[in-house]
Amino acid sequence: MAGGLFSDYDLGGFYDEAIDLDGTPRSGQEPVVDWFDALTPDDLRYHGDLRDDVLRSRGITFTVYGEAQGIERTWPMDLFPRIIRADEWDVLERGLAQRVDAVNRFLEDLYVGDQAILNDGVVPRWLVMSSSGFEREAFNISVPNGARCLVSGVDVVRGADGRFLVLEDNLRNPSGVSYVLENRATMARVLTGAFDRMGIRSVDHYGRSLLSALKHAAPPAAGDDPVVCVLTPGVFNSAYFEHAFLARQMGVELVEGRDLVVDDHVVAMRTTGGLRRVDVIYRRIDDHFLDPVVFESGSSLGVPGLMAAVRAGTVTVANAVGNGVADDKAVYPYVPAMIRYYLGEEALIDNATTYVLWDDDERNAAFARMDELVWKPVAESGGYGILIGPQASDAELAAMRDTVEADPRGWIAQEVVALSRVPSCVDGGLEGRHVDLRPFVLTGESIEVIPGGLTRVAMRKGSLIVNSSQGGGSKDTWVLSEDPPDPAAAEPAGGTI
């Protein structure tokens, strides 16, 4: 790779997913590394401009709250794809399916079962009952097929040894899958030749798989063709683009709370042809705004009487109410124990090393190493509230200690994971940037893990925060198929990209 874009590439002491320690491409990465190494800085800028034109023309945006102006931004997507070999994906796929299976069983046990895992002391009862995601309104509400986490987004990272670790679970309204699909569509137009050379597993079926899973969760009375809709808070929500995108992908109606009515415990949506019964609601509204009768009385986003209809079994809401208790970051450390308890197996993917700060011994041990750990609030998302000890000042660490001492249940501490890096396009060249991965898992007739997921990349040099709201970007994630592509169909190296 002498003289190309990779000639001065610096591994930075981290595990690089594309380049090995000796400076050569890792197995499976060679075609894409060769493609990019053959480009000039001007070529890279040209393709970056083409990518931006495609994203703008497709209206692919996201919203950053709290900014006085310019809150609607074009989705940031890096040109260099993240590549996962078939054998690596096999381990990840089986581990994610195992994890979601166990969490579904935990939630079913908690809300409609005997709470056996609590009675046996495997998970502390008080911890579950004190979670902000625990909902008493979900008690005794059955979910068809036990698919309480119908859509799951599990955040995964690779550490210094290249092994995958689960950083956290997203089981309420996980977002980002629309960008997985749009990243792929954009890359197909910008990096046309690379697709022929790689043998990449498709993600285009996600809409069909999601619709199938939703219909599979319909109440028995819905018949052979259940009516599905997507419930959105409206155009001012940060993920509204995704809500509309998924409704189009599935060919179903996108509705707001005001479009739905409940009469005699049956939900119907207003259409130009009159009221039409709804069997399954894919909701993108948080629990507390779903039904002003039982939750926030002042909410105008939800549907009065919806929970009564859910309890009556005439409509299914996915994801189920109350899932937040399972993705509480203080409950997350117990997921491997859930896997052993419900499945009789050891977790195929480990958690990141985590300290539960309500435990006096673990809290004191963590306080002794404050500047070495990452401190996270258990109920926040989007990268907000996190303090990275090695990058924090003495004053910030002292303030964090006071905060944790005042509310130890509300915080966890984790060992800093030296996140793996992937080459990323920076100022006409390539530099390593830290990444994570959010694969999406559907629980329908079976558990399906969509190949790849949303790779988020920390585009700020040295940053470990990958969230788009915190300055991060994204990459298309290419899971390689077991069958290699036909070499005769591939373009020669240095061809059109």
Walkthrough of the structure:
Strand 4 and strand 5 (164-170) form a beta hairpin. Helix 2 (41-58) crosses helix 6 and helix 3 packs across helix 11 (335-343). The protein has 13 helices and 23 strands. It has 497 residues and is an alpha+beta fold. The chain is globular and about 70 Å long. The model is unreliable at 487-497 (pLDDT under 50).
With helices defined by DSSP (H or I, 4 residues minimum), what is the helix count?
13
Overall pLDDT metric = 91
Gyration radius, rounded: 23 Å
Which strand order spans the largest sheet, edge to edge or round the barrel? 3-23-22-19-18
| Beta-strand proportion | 15-25%
Comma- or semicolon-separated keywords:
23 strands, 28% helix, disordered C terminus, 5-stranded mixed β-sheet, 497 residues
Q: Topology of this structure?
A:
Layout: H1 30-37, H2 41-58, E1 61-63, E2 72-74, E3 77-84, H3 86-111, H4 116-119, H5 125-129, E4 151-158, E5 164-170, H6 177-190, H7 192-198, H8 206-216, E6 228-231, H9 240-250, E7 253-255, E8 260-263, E9 266-271, E10 274-277, E11 280-283, H10 306-312, E12 316-318, H11 335-343, E13 350-351, E14 354-356, H12 360-367, E15 373-377, E16 387-388, H13 394-406, E17 411-415, E18 421-426, E19 429-438, E20 440-443, E21 447-449, E22 454-457, E23 473-479
Parallel strand pairs: 3-23, 5-13, 6-7, 6-11, 11-12
Antiparallel strand pairs: 1-2, 4-5, 4-20, 8-9, 9-10, 14-17, 15-16, 15-17, 18-19, 19-22, 20-21, 22-23
Helix pairs in contact: 2-6, 3-11
